[in-house]
# Entry
Amino acid sequence: MTTQKRNDPFIRNEKEAHLVKTAAELAERFAARAPLHDREGSFPFENIQDLKDSGYVKLTVPREYGGEEISLYEMLLMQEQLGRGDGSTALSIGWHMGLMLHYRTTRSWPEELFRSFCREVVEKGTLLNHFSTERSSGSPSRGGTPQTTAVKTEGGWLLSGRKTFSTLSPVLDTFLVSASIVERNEIGSFLVRSSDRIHIDETWDTLGMRSTGSHDVVLDQAFVPDEALISSYPVGQKPQAPSDASAWLLHIPACYLGIAHAARDFAVSFAKSYHPASLPTPIADLPTVQQQIGLLESELLVARHLMYAIADRWDKDPSGRLQLIPELGLVKYVATNHAISIVDKAMRVVGGASLSRSLPLERMYRDVRAGLHNPPMDENVIRNLAMRALAEMD
# Structure
């Protein structure tokens, strides 16, 4: 089941209901394709095309440049709905959707370049992601310095290196790359266009989220013009927190809550319809089954209430966004860990049949596990909460 419940308390008005309906219709298509893409580890090109054709990819683009400029809250409603259909597709497109919201809010690009790129998104369906992680240096969220280098040349830069976890790579003609500017001892973010100096090494063969196309992207002296240097900061200096507090990353917990919600719906439907010969009624009448359903329902409600409450606060109070950083991290921590627990309980309700590849639960079980490895990491979230609590007592 991927369609939204009519009485979903998090849908507050007609506009949100319309947005969720659009996402639910897409999710229905994606759900039908998800088992095969998961089994093959193939990229869902047709899903991405559906997202482009529907206008989904321009929803977070500024209105002044042809987009719909939907809010963070509205984006999460739609991303959660997509997650109910196919987690891999939801997580993949979430990077584009979130980044466009992020750059719309922070305006950290040169304005003319941003205007031009937004027009590409609106008119051509151009997608975006930022490739930062490298096998040798690890995640930039843990302080890794890029081994990818940018060397100055006439009129621009030559970029060389390998990026891992490059989600959406099979369909990206344009993407951001972080690289070390050696002669300036800085780390820069560059807007890169596809060329014959860039290729994809198809390394993505994983337990979960098998259809995100998160292959390695290899750059071999790829040229980017001077104006493609978006921003830079000194090596060893922690970059200043962006003015939006990176709330766009909430697309991650929205995706995993969508998967968890789909698992919940499957388990509840199964419990109400499965009537073994040994019982006079369906298993939904068993106290042990009701206990599992009640527990997973409580976890889902807690996580959804937290996510949408924080998103609503972020939307309504721009001046207080930086103070929300610990809570934004907490949303991801709660959502991903609860999602794992929810899918586990759903499988307990269904029983041994839940391990069958003919049912969606085993795929959901593998997919939600991936959430632990998306930013921010659990230990960083807990540390931020601890540091704030300690600071409050000074």
